[in-house]
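User: Batch of two.

Assistant: Item 1 of 2:
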Amino acid sequence: MPDTGRIRGIVARQRELAEAVAALTRSGALSPSPRKWGAIARVVLRHGATMSTLYAIAAVRWPDRVAVLDDDGELTYDELYRHAMALAVDVRHRNGRRPSTMAVLCRNHRGFVIGVCAAAMTGAEVISVNTELPSRQLAALIVRHRPEVLVLDEDFLLEVDAYRGVLVSVDSLSTPGVPSGVARDTVSRRAGRITLLTSGTSGLAKGVPRTITAWGVAQLAGTGAARVGLRHDDIIEVAPPFFHGFGLLAVLGAAAVGATVVCHRRFDSATVLDDLVRHRVSVLVAVPVMVQRVLADPGVAAAADRHHLRIAVTGAAPITNTTVREFQRRFGPILINGYGSTEAGLVSVSSMDELVETPDTVGTPALGVTIRIVDDADHAVPIGRSGRIVVRGPLKYSGYTPDATTPALTDKAVVDGFVDTGDVGYLDARGRLFLCGRSDDMIVSGGENVFPGEVEDALSTHPAIAEAVVVGVDDREFGQVLHAFVVHRPGEPVGTEELTQHLRRRLERYKVPKRFEVVDEIPRNAGGKVLRHQLIGDASLSNTKASNSE
């Protein structure tokens, strides 16, 4: 008897491959001049399946096209590739051999791209380091990963003064000039690894190593072209940090189709709005909190009247229905929402039409990805019923980087190649994924399960609320009660009773927070994720004080 499940999988993979090829052809990525095919083939043979291959191909196909437009000006694909090659040669010479590990500690500018590309050229494991880490955590990460080479911005030099490996400041990179023989000896075809760090919202960020494969690169390029619609002539503003998976994915996706990346070392909503007009940005990539700040900026109306956007992509954190609708009202039905995790990689992508119809979906599986919803016994649940989201895709999760200082480090569960994302959600009859929330964020109040996202979304519909986060705190009577942190819009204060009545008209009574606390801002990490553990501590302290005063 034939294995029908395996046959269906093969057919699905072939269909996805055909979709990716067609989309890449439309984007211009697979339509080079015939006279360049030989040069492209030589580049692929020389570099193998690595991140540097994307930039090597781009340098052959579009040498004079701007690859990066940052705070220091423009850099073409040819210039970027030559800078990366020069850096790779330099670190090999200073290290005495090709390094096995290279860490990159750079904000959003050309230096990050050059550093990652150079590391990939040498076959080293690339460690992408969070630029917003406190000094103590940064030191702990360097001890854990032991990079032989550290590429960094000059303003981080004092924070790594104890580092004893090869130190390279990207601010001091000189104009490259590398003999071809030296370059050939430097480039490795070995498929290196890239290690991304988890968000670290509950402690020291964990390292998640990934081996770069040809299928992984193909999925990246295919999803960017087929599901997002990237084209070779796009000007892409990438606002999320490059060290984060979302930002890195956007940067590599741009290289795959030969587009231009616009970036700045620090996010500023007014600068983004100015870029939309000044640089005729056609694609905006931003995490939800950045989208919120763009919409709240005084200059949004003027930019919305003059923008050239045809696509906006968000992801990496939950986005409220209110924010989706407001963005669509300002800029048109151009928003796409993506979902993924450091461990699982890119999981799903919504289309523009899907977000217009259903703003809370995160879409259908990305190319090469299979999504299952399972119960606690790993059994599949029916369509429409919520459960644990487990994922299998081209980026194989193989555990966290070992850490002698934290022996209790627990890997994500993997069953039959499916990794547990730690999220809870459900699939509808059309295969669209909907998120309920993080399994460890669920609040159990009086025996009822409450996911904060539903309450936060309802709060966001009140015109006086700019942001809202709901956490659970211990309670003797109910086990846990809900505590809401809210940020008011300027000049629009609102009382607890009004918010309570607002929620009671929309939610079951047990989902209404017991207390509301007004704050100036919601604490987040550099990737835009809410620091819930910090807020839980704040809420517990507030509730204790309130109880003592009653």
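Item 2 of 2:
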Amino acid sequence: MFCSLSYLTVIFEPDGKRVRVEAGITILQAAKEAGIIIRSECGGRGVCGKCKVIVKNADAISEISGIERKLLSQREIEEGYRLSCQTRIFKDVVVMIPLESRVETRKMEVHGVERRVEINPIIRKIYVELKEPTLSDVKPDLERLLEAVEERLGIRGVLEFDFNVLRRLPEILRSSKWNVTAVLWGNRLIDVEPGDTTNEIFGMAVDIGTSKIVCHLVDLKSGDTLAVGSMENPQILYGEDVISRITYASSSNHNLDSLQKLVVDGINKVFVEVCQKAGVNPDKVYEAVVVGNTAMHHLFLGIQPKYLALSPYTPAVKRSISLMAKNLNINQMNSRGIITTLPLIAGFVGADAVADILATGIHESEGNVLLVDIGTNTEIIVGNREDMICCSCASGPAFEGVHIKDGMKAVTGAIERIRITRNFEVEYETIGGVKPRGLCGSAVIDVVAEMFKHGIIDCHGKFNLSVSIPRLKRTERGFEFVIAWRNETATGREITITQKDIRELQLAKAAIYTGCSILMRKKNLREYDISTLFIAGAFGSYINPENAKIIGLIPDIPTEKIKFVGNTAVMGAKMALISKEVRQTAELLSKLVRYHELAADPDFHSEFINAIPIPNRIIDRFPSVKKYIQSFA
């Protein structure tokens, strides 16, 4: 007896894409099969409420669920809005994806501070002109080549070779009339090219972030970046945060393979983009140095990340790894090229943190430095040339607009700057200068700080109902503060911030401040002991430092000591790409930087609770904020 599957057609508008899918799957799954990305920051678990779609034919889909009634407003339900992760399809249907649910290229920080290093890459090219064999000189091809290269390098008997090179060697030598360029990775011969190609020697520096992938195409002779490319991390389909992806990967090897394929395909795509920009032949790209947090590192290599989320949170490997690109299906570079991942530190503090240190030079600093790489998984480092300590904290995706009612990523239409005037009017700026669609993370920080300064919320983040202003209004969700009125927005709906949104930000900022304060205490440091506060990461570059201090996101360090350093992770990867000595330093840092597990710290709970109020329950820790509020009053 055979069981036949029922298939139906789904049309996604405004894309006009059609896809045949099995009956009973969710709209979100159907969108994935159609190659359409719908916002789904929680990975389809029915938590974030961002995967909204509009379906007019209710008979073709499942009945509205309790989760949808909780996350959608009554007006949205009446207009046919559904959550794509909760809605199953049973008949042919047309699905409209509204503007606020579409994923666009975000405003990304793809550059960072760059420290010059002596150019000494592990990739080398040696041009040699060999003597053609004769009856009196029958030396084998490989030995003839290796001896000539070693003679040029002043070494003897140390070069190894890749077997695939040997298979092709006889034809290459003879077709090039014995004039060839040997490509070396360290002391290993990885390729042989006809003629003199020593001027074409390139590499890639890659930062695999939880939310984005950034690549720099680098000339290994000059050390210059020739082109930069970036994209959203495609793994976002399975969750905005690290834990969602670990959970998905842990359920089966198929899921792990799917996540690895997504990131590998994404990297191949960006490699093509940057090579085309620079007019570089991908076959002349011989190595890529890759960094990322521990979870992204494991998923890229196809290593099961399950145990990263289970106590005692141990990674599968810590040391640097080098393997052939083809073993990872990285196919948009030299087929015999090498992928190198920098070493990890511990827990979720990965190779990106090592790269942060390299790029900012904390390990060479005489003064005490605090570095905060803000993201879904925030990494914090405190120290100097004598000693460094680090931690990671689950600051959550609030800074990416997740769990915020009108939150969104930093794409066109996102409000990124907010100021409230003395008469409680709101002035804002949007990315691209267009009508607003929502709030990105920097705007959420701004509006909470501004509301606090103007007495609209109190130190607990609660709305001050004694303030009678039109923008503070009661809705079915409770009280909300209106940032943009209905007639101002691209969606035709008001953009507001709710009590729940404020609480999400308080929890996120408390996590980061707690990490900073505990590490500073472990080093017996006060705010005045910090010579420089580096704020790194794609998000960190866009925040207002004064507002960050007002809400208690970062310690109350003088603004002139705060430096925004951009994407230091990719810059550290670039330094390792062009310098063998930097790689050695990276290995040393991996062993020397102390890791502190925040969850095991006896003061973690009390510090976190103290950090939830604005700016902090211990107000004396923020004298500049205290003084500012008093002077304003």
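Residues 253-278 form the longest helix (26 residues).
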